[in-house]
Q: What sequence folds into this?
């Protein structure tokens, strides 16, 4: 599973997970959107949820946006590729620990790998981070359930179960 990142450089370089992925040769960073290869764009504002069917459609390239949450919506609309949103997951990174939907770049890429049933690749991506294993532990059940779905509508149904549980 190839991982690519459109990198705006908005974050603290010491905390930037995309830069660390590049240092460990786990992802390629691009500063120009035109250079980013076609693939599944992990876009928090996409209308459809990421599902195993996306991989079955031959999409082997993951593209993440590494930018501030404020500029993510604007940046994502300019990216070419198939845009998909990640379903409900909880962050394990020290900045957003326990907050739903506030994943770092590496957490987003690892989650997508898990949904595509590439758990070894997810572990490989998360290995350089002290909290990486925690991400997989915190989200073990939802990631497993999402990976067992066939399409986006099933993923959304599973997500709705988690969101309903959180309201009770």
A:
């Amino acid at each position: 599973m190839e991982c690519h990142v459109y990198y705006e450089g908005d974050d603290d370089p010491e905390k930037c997970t995309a830069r660390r992925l590049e240092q460990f040769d786990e992802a390629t960073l691009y500063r120009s959107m035109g250079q980013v290869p076609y693939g599944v764009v992990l876009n928090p504002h996409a209308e459809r949820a990421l599902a195993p069917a996306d991989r079955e459609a031959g999409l082997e390239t993951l593209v993440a946006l590494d930018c501030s949450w404020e500029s993510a919506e604007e940046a994502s609309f300019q990216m070419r590729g198939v845009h998909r949103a990640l379903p409900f997951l909880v962050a394990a990174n020290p900045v957003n620990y326990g907050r739903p939907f506030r994943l770092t770049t590496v957490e987003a890429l690892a989650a997508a790998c898990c949904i595509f049933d590439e758990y070894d690749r997810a572990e490989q991506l998360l290995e350089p981070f002290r909290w990486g294993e925690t991400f997989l532990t915190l989200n073990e059940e939802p990631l497993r359930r999402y990976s067992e779905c066939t399409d986006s509508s099933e993923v959304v149904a599973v997500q709705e179960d988690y969101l309903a549980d959180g309201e009770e």
Summary: The chain has a mean pLDDT of 88.
